[in-house]
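Homework help board

Subject: predicted structure for assignment chain

Our instructor gave us this sequence and asked us to write out the predicted structure in token form, then describe one feature. I got the tokens but I'm not sure how to describe them. Can anyone check?
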Amino acid sequence: MIKRKLASGIRRRSLLAGVAALGAAGAVGAASGCSRVDVSGATGGGHLLEDLRKKGTVRMGIASEPPYASINSKGELTGEAPAVAKTIFRRLGIKNFEPVPVEFQALVPGLHSFQYDVIVAGMFINKARCAAVLFSDPDYESKDAFLVRKGNPDNIHSYADIAKGKYRMGSGIGYAEIDYAVGNGVKKDTIQTYGDQIAGMEALEAGRIDVFAGTALTMIEALKTGAHPKVEMTKPFTPEVDGKPQRDGGGYGFRLGETKLRDAFNAELQKMKKSGELLRIAEPYGFTKEFMTDLTAKELCKK
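My token output:
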């Protein structure tokens, strides 16, 4: 999904990342002198919400990846996920926030080893991760997009277009977009992989590939550098495989069993969705109405 540098790195959204993060959870105990990490979770709905209210501070596990979450040049916590989480936690009676930056693949293990109280990283929700993390409902829905040469001379707008035209496609290591492309007829052994969108743009300009596939939000962030004027992004879209939309969404992760905190968090999140406040908070980070979602964690945990 894994961790990206700048606007990308290895994508925390990929399906492989979910499995890797889950597998790593069992190894955390060895590093801390314990044989294993107990991921069975709290009982009776948990007591973390009450504890956080007493302390007045919530520790947020983040993996630096704009526009989702990062520490800016001034050392300040920024990004869409922290902005939304801060608003919700304030309404739950918790007014202080302590960011704990880690590599993306360490987010789940760090949660279980009590390094922080919640994952605030726009993490994709999928079946593998749901076995180890109690997720809020998603606050955004991911869209794919393509980076192409200026003017999109090959008129590429879908994975089917890539397959039909036998265009040279690039993507990131472990990106879910590779699976979407293969599901539409692109031969996997023809797809070139790169470390991030910046490397993808360089490959486009050099003529080594015709298109680079990834998530729209990270591409928007990468294009902000202005360093690759010969490259543009296509309109964001929901990919399809065999005619079925492949919808993905990201949310906030709690330790298993902490349902009181998750449910309280969800209640405030739903209010923000209905009032339009969520979109207003997310817009400065590049999120638009098309990234808002009605998906639920229950739906995504089945994927």
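Reply (TA_rk): Your tokens look well-formed. For the description, you could write something like this. Residues 1-12, 15-21, 24-36 have pLDDT under 50 and may be disordered. That's the kind of observation they're looking for.
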